[in-house]
Amino acid sequence: MTVGRQAVLRVHVRRIIASSALMTVSLSLTGTGWAQDGSTEEATQLQTVVIDGKSDRVVGPDRTIVAKDTATGTKTDTPVIDVPASVSVITQKELEARHVESLQQAVAYTSSVFTDEFGNDDRYDYIRIRGFDQTSLGTYRDGLAARIPAWFTASRLEPYGLQRVEVLKGSTSTLFGLNGPGGLVNAITKRPQDEKHGEIYTSYGDGTKEIGADFGGPIDADGVWSYRLTTLGKQGDQGWDYSNDDRLYIAPALTIKPQEGTSLTILTDYYKRDGTGARGLPAGANIDMGTFLGEPDFNRFNTEQVDIGYQFEHEFNENLTVRSNARYTHLTLDYAEVYGASPDPTADRTAFSVDGLSNRFAFDNQLQYDTGWDRVDSKTLVGVDYANDNTREEILFGTAGPIDINNPTYCGLSCINLGPYVNWRVKQQAVGVYAQEQLTFDDRWIATFGGRWDHVHTTADYLDSGTQDDDTASAFTKRAGLTYKFTPNLAVYANYSDSFQPLVAPSANGYAVSGSLKPQKGEQYEVGVKYKPDGFDGLFTAAYFDLTQTNVPTYVTPVIQQQIGKVGVRGIELEGKAAITENLNLTLAYSYWDAEIRENGIGGNVGNRPQRVPRHLASAWLDYTLPGEGQRGDLTVGGGVRYIGQSYGDDANTVSVGGYALVDAAVSYKVTKDVTLAVNATNLFDKKYLASSYYGTDFYGDRRKVVGTLKYSW
C-alpha cells in the first residue's frame, strides 16, 4: 500500500535525521578536537548528509521587493522592524528585475554599501560597508563565511544561484565571529520549494552569451522529498581586449521533510569561472579604454570550486528548536598577471603567478528556546560555530618585457621571468561560542543583548625556508540593543556592538610586513528609526552610526602593509523600499560617511580621510508595469541612477578621484503568459569614469553593457 510505503519511508528518514542530530551534538561537544589537519578526506566524509526547515520563512522567495523578516539580523526569525540594527534585504524579485551579474551589482542600490572600489577588476567581490573594507571576511553564504582567510585564493559567488541577499550593517562579531565593524553580506542560496516551478533562459549582448535553467518542486505526493537544480553556462568578456568572463555553474539541492517541524536540505554546487584578473592603466595616461597592457597568453584568473553543505532544523516542541548548518568547500586558483605598464616604453613590467588550493569546513550549531510569562516574550539563542581552513599557495614573482602603451605589441611567454616569492601553507582554526537573548515587553519594548567568545589559531608554514608564523588570538565581544515600537509600524532603536578580526599576511620569503599585524578590534554606536506604512508594502529606515576600528592595515607600497592605528567613521544612512502598487516599485538610498584616520597615522595622515572611502553615496530605482490588455502582454519599464562621491587614492589625500553618476535601465515584455523578453543596460550612457587611483595605477569602471534575455517559465 502507498500509505505503508510512506510510513516506512518516514521511519527511515527519521532515523537518518536522528543520526545527523546525534552527530551534530557530538561535534558541538568535541569542539576542535577533530579535524586538526583539515584533511579533505575527513571533511568530505562529514558532508555526506546535508539539510533546511522553518527557516524557509526568512530566506524567500519574497512576493515583492520588500522583505518583512530576516534571519541574518539576529540568527532567528525576526521582523526587520524589530531588529535593533540596520538590515537591508535584496529579494529575488529585485535581483531579477536588474539582471544582476555579480554580488557587487546585487547590493549596488543598498545604503552604506560601496562596490565600485576597483572598477572592472573581476577577481573578487569588493564590498565596503559603512566605510570599512569587508571584502576579506565580510561575505557570507547561508550564514557561514564564504571567504577564505588566505592571500589570493578566493572566488566570487554566482548571483543566479541566489534567491535573496541580506546586508547587516555594523559590528556583527557577537553572532558571526571574525569580521570588521562595517557589517556583512549574507547571500541566500536557492533551495527546493514546496511547489513545482521552473524556468529556462538565454541571454545575449555586450560581452555575454549565456544559457541557464532553474527548476524543481516536490518529488512525492506528500511533499516529503523536494528538489531543485540551478545551472548556468556563459561565455563572455569584461568589455576590454583579451578579457574573459566564462562561467559554468551547476547546483543540485534536495530537501527532506519527514514530519512537521523537521527538515534537512542538502545544498551542493560546482562553479568554474575563467577570468582575466585585474586591469589598471598608468595614472593619467590618455589611451583607449579597451587597451590591454598585460600578456594575452599569460594573464588569467581561473577558479574551480565545489561546495557540499546542509541546513538542518528540528522543532522538539513549540518552545525548543535545534539547527545545524555546515559546508565543505574545495577551491583551486590558477592566477597569473603581468601589470605595471609605464608611459616609458623601455621600462619593464611586473609579473607574478599564484597556484592556490584551499579546503574549508565550517559548521554553526544553534539551540533556540522560546517562552513567555505575563506580558514578556523571551527568545533565547545559544550556539557554537567552528571553521577549519587549510590553504596552500605557491607565488612566483618577477618581470616582463616593456610595452608601448600607445601601440602595444605583446611579447608572449618568452619575455616573462619568474622566481620564487612566497610558498606557504596557512592553517586556521576558529571556534566561537555565543548566546543571545531577545525580550519583548508589552509588544513595544524589545531588548536584544548577547555575548561571544572567539578563539583563533593560525599557522603559516613557509615551505622553502622551513620557518613558521604561529599566532593565537582570543576575544570576547558583546552586543546590546533596544527597540521601542510607538505603533506596530513605527520603531526607534539604539545599539552598541563589538567586532574582532585577526589578520593573515605573509611575513617571510620576501614579502614585507612593516611590524606584526595585530587583530583588528572595533566598536559601534548606532541609533535609528524604521517605518512600515499601512497603505502599501514598504519599509523606510534612517540610521546614525559612529564606528571605530583599531589596528587597521594599509598598504604603504603596493606590497607592504602597516597598521596605522585607529580609523573612525561617523555617518547617516537613509533607505526606502516600496511596492507602492502591484505595478510600481521604488528603491531609494543615501549615505554620508565622515571618515578619518584618528590615531598613529603614517607620515602626518592623522585627520585625513582613509583611501578609497567616498563621503557621499546615493541611488534610486523605479520600475512600472503597464498591464496587458487583450493580445498585449505586460510591459515593465525601469531605470535607476547611482552616485558615488569624491574619494582619495591614498591616505595622504594627495590623489583625488572625482565623483560620478551612472544610469541603468531595464525593459521587459510578457510575450505570452510563460515567455518574457527583457533588455537590461548598465551604465546606459557609456560614461567613462575613474573608480580609483592606486599607487600610480588608474582603475576605470565598466563601460555600457546591454543584454537581452528570453525566458520561458512554468
Using only CA atoms, what is the Rg?
Answer: 25 Å
- By CATH, the architecture of the largest domain is named Beta Barrel
Question: How many domains, as an integer?
Answer: 2
Strand content: over 45%
Cα separation of the termini: 32 Å
Major pleated sheet: 22 strands, antiparallel, barrel
Count of strand segments: 40
Q: Assign a percent range to the helix content.
A: under 10%
The first-level CATH class name of the largest domain:
Mainly Beta
Report the average pLDDT across residues: 89
Oligomeric category: single chain
Shape descriptor: globular
Query: The CATH topology of the largest domain is what?
Result: Maltoporin, Chain A
Report on the structure:
The chain has about 725 residues and is mainly β. It has two domains: about 70-185, Ferric Hydroxamate Uptake Protein, Chain A, domain 1; about 185-714, TonB-dependent receptor, beta-barrel domain (Maltoporin, Chain A). It has a 22-stranded antiparallel barrel. Strands 3-9-10-7-8 form a five-stranded mixed β-sheet. It has a three-stranded antiparallel β-sheet with strand order 4-5-6, with no helix packed on it. The model is unreliable at about 1-55 (pLDDT under 50).
SSE blueprint:
Elements: H1 2-30, H2 40-46, E1 69-70, E2 78-79, E3 87-91, H3 92-98, H4 103-106, E4 113-114, E5 128-129, E6 132-133, E7 139-141, E8 144-145, E9 162-169, H5 173-176, E10 183-189, E11 197-205, E12 208-218, E13 225-236, E14 245-259, E15 262-275, E16 281-282, E17 300-315, E18 320-339, E19 349-373, E20 376-400, E21 416-441, E22 445-462, E23 468-487, E24 490-501, E25 513-514, E26 520-531, E27 537-550, E28 553-555, E29 561-563, E30 566-581, E31 584-599, E32 616-626, E33 635-644, E34 647-648, E35 656-657, E36 660-670, E37 675-682, E38 690-694, E39 697-700, E40 705-713
Parallel strand pairs: 7-10, 25-29
Antiparallel strand pairs: 1-2, 3-9, 4-5, 5-6, 7-8, 9-10, 11-12, 11-40, 12-13, 13-14, 14-15, 15-17, 16-39, 17-18, 18-19, 19-20, 20-21, 21-22, 22-23, 23-24, 24-26, 26-27, 27-30, 28-29, 30-31, 31-32, 32-33, 33-36, 34-35, 36-37, 37-40, 38-39
